[in-house]
């Protein structure tokens, strides 16, 4: 990143930064702001920001499907929820609770669910993909909701937050600031990874599936296999978001496996701008902020999904590119 | 050899027959919901996520109309009419601007609509389920049960509505327009068929059918704001299993799935019996992704 070449065509006397230099400067500025944020924000907004980042990660994972592969998943609540319950399993069974084990368990559970969903639902054309993913999410919801002996049923599971530990180096308990940094590091890392993936030849194939599936198949790419891998990748990151949420909130509840969670992830995407990866994070922030403000003005019982749903519908009709749509090309370069 | 005999004796024949009747009754309502869904899909390529909410809205309208008019059948008609007009308005406002765009947009928009409607109903009508009494209270004896005639009437009525829809599509001028548009949108337009009007009409028709099934179902299920999701999921499964856009297939699939669920409820908890229909869907996707009853091409 330090070797950003200067633009050869720059006019004399004016220094224009290259695309990648601008990108990395922007990235560093946003990162710096997010690193400093918990030090200046009051405790409530600190937790709020961390939560927004986690929802952003979930939305970003689903953007890989909506924005790049061109298929809408309503099953991300299953991946998110299994990440959550996988982490819960690790934290409850193994003593003392281990953060890394929680992540491994959560990712494993999410990957299992993703494999199952990907295998079945990529057999149908795009529209039915949405329905089958929704039905799979509902299957997992019913299982988790009714299998009270293992999952705690309606009450969910409560556990202790693990320490942040690297063997022989550090072992410190999380506080609200350090967990924010940890979440931020994971989300930023995931962003860079997913950005790299979407720019790779693999990502290019995904985008060509979005643009013209029949032609991609005719060229000779095994479209189904690419779709399965993209669903699994997406599911893994959704599971990671679930693990982070479990670690931050210290509980796992069946509500998060309910399909509304997937629906909200889709809303974040549309609001922020599909196919941009950062857009969904912004969309998540916008959605959560609106929700919070509506609750403060009109009380907790206010049905915030009515105004937000109407904004969502209006955005699909009038602004399908989302808030960050204007920067889509630039961000994907 | 005794075990097989014991097993056969352990099958509760009377219970199975009762569940067969139950399954057919639910299946007919489901067929009514699914045929609206498959009609909208077949003609517009729109997967209507809000279909369950139209069902729910119809049920609420039925409850309100029943409270004011006191006549169940009048309430049924009114609810279908109101939700039908609402459906037309919905199509004009939210779906018409999306014609010609990626079909993904229609999924997203109808999902948004379903979210708004569901929360509106929760906000407006509260979380407590509303009850409505059946217009026919007569019962007949089915083994040890007093089985309400109303359920039989529902099944017949649903069948009659679907039959009327079929006749309408076959002989009415608008029905011919609908079929022509389904077959070839561009050609139909070239022949002077007002395609946008056909779209709106079909959506209104589907909405009215969903509303009618909502009212019919209301007396034995209770009405609450979250009932839509369960029905739309089942209807989706039916549409996929029956073959996309295939009216006859979805009716057969509706009864098939409802029967399976009813039988499963003999041994399982009702909330887990739902999984049976999910399993049917998965098996269908595995072995016949185009649907069990899809017409050979």
Descriptive notes:
The complex is a heterodimer of chains A (333) and B (297). Chain A is mainly alpha-helical and 333 residues long. Chain A has a domain at 40-259. Chain A has 14 helices and 4 strands. Chain A has helices at 19-40, 43-69, 76-93, 99-121, 126-146, 148-151, 176-199, 201-211, 213-219, 223-249, 259-272, 278-298, 305-318, 328-331; strands at residues 157-158, 164-166, 170-172, 251-252. In chain A, the strands form 2 sheets. In chain A, strands 1-4 form a two-stranded antiparallel ribbon. In chain A, strands 2-3 form a two-stranded antiparallel sheet. In chain A, a hairpin with a 3-residue loop joins strand 2 and strand 3. Chain A starts with 18 loop residues before the first helix and ends with a helix. Chain B is mainly α. Chain B has a domain at 31-132 and 148-228. Helix content of chain B is 77%, strand content 3%. Chain B has a two-stranded antiparallel sheet. In chain B, strand 1 and strand 2 form a beta hairpin. In chain B, helix 3 (51-69) packs parallel to helix 5 and helix 10 (227-242) runs parallel beside helix 12. The longest helix of chain B is centred in the N-terminal third of the chain and has 32 residues, at 13-44.
């Amino acid at each position: 990143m330090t070797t950003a070449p200067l633009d050869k065509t720059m006019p004399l006397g004016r220094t224009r930064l290259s695309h990648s230099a601008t990108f990395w400067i922007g990235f560093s500025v946003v990162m710096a702001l997010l690193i400093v944020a918990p030090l200046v924000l009051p405790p409530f907004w600190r937790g709020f920001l961390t939560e927004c980042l986690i929802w952003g990660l979930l939305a970003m994972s689903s953007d890989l499907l909506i924005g790049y592969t061109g298929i809408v998943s309503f099953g991300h609540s299953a991946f998110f929820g299994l990440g959550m319950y996988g982490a819960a399993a690790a934290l409850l069974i193994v003593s003392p609770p281990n953060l890394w084990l929680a992540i491994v368990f959560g990712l494993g559970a999410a990957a299992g669910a993703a494999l199952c969903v990907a295998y079945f639902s990529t057999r149908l054309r795009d529209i039915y993909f949405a329905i089958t993913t929704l039905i799979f999410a509902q299957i997992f919801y019913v299982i988790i909701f009714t299998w009270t002996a293992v999952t705690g049923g309606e009450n969910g599971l409560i556990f202790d937050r693990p320490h942040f530990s690297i063997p022989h180096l550090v072992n410190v308990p999380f506080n609200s600031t350090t967990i924010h940094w940890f979440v931020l590091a994971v989300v930023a890392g995931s962003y860079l990874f997913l950005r790299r993936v979407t720019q790779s030849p693999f990502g290019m194939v995904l985008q060509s599936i979005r643009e013209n599936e029949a032609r991609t198949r005719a060229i000779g790419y095994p479209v189904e296999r690419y779709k399965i891998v993209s669903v699994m990748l997406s599911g893994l990151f959704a599971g990671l978001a679930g693990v982070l949420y479990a670690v931050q909130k210290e509980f796992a509840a069946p509500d998060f496996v309910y399909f509304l969670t997937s629906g909200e992830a889709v809303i974040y995407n549309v609001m922020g701008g599909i196919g941009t990866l950062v857009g969904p994070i912004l969309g998540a922030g916008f959605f959560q902020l609106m929700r919070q403000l509506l609750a403060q003005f009109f009380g907790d019982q206010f049905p915030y999904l009515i105004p937000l749903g109407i904004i969502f519908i209006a955005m699909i009709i009038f602004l399908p590119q989302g808030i960050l749509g204007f920067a889509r090309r630039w961000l994907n370069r | 050899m005794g075990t097989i005999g014991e097993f056969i004796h352990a099958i509760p024949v009377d219970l199975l027959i009762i569940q067969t009747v139950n399954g057919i009754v639910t299946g007919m309502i489901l067929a009514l919901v699914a045929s609206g869904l498959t009609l909208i899909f077949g003609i517009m390529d729109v997967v209507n996520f809000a279909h369950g909410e139209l069902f729910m809205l119809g049920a609420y309208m039925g409850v309100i109309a029943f409270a004011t008019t006191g006549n169940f059948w009048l309430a049924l008609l009114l609810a279908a009419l109101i939700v039908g007009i609402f459906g037309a308005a919905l199509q004009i406002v939210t779906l018409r601007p999306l014609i010609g765009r990626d079909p993904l947009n229609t999924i997203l928009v109808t999902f948004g609509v379903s979210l708004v409607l569901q929360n509106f109903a929760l906000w407006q009508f509260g979380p407590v389920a509303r009850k409505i009494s059946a217009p026919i209270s007569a019962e007949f004896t089915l083994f040890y049960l007093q089985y309400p005639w109303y359920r039989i009437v529902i099944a017949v009525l649903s069948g009659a509505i679907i039959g009327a829809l079929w006749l309408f599509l076959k002989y009415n001028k608008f029905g011919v327009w609908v079929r022509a548009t389904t077959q070839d949108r561009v050609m139909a337009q070239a022949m002077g068929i007002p395609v946008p009007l056909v779209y709106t009409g079909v959506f209104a028709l589907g909405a009215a059918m969903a509303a009618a099934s909502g009212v019919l179902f209301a007396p034995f299920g209770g009405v609450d704001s979250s009932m839509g999701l369960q029905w739309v999921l089942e209807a989706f499964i039916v549409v996929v299993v029956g073959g996309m856009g295939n009216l006859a297939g979805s009716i057969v699939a509706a009864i098939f799935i409802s029967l399976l669920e009813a039988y499963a409820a003999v041994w399982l908890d009702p909330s887990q019996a739902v999984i049976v229909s999910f399993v049917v869907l998965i098996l269908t996707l595995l072995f016949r992704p185009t649907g069990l009853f899809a017409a050979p091409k």
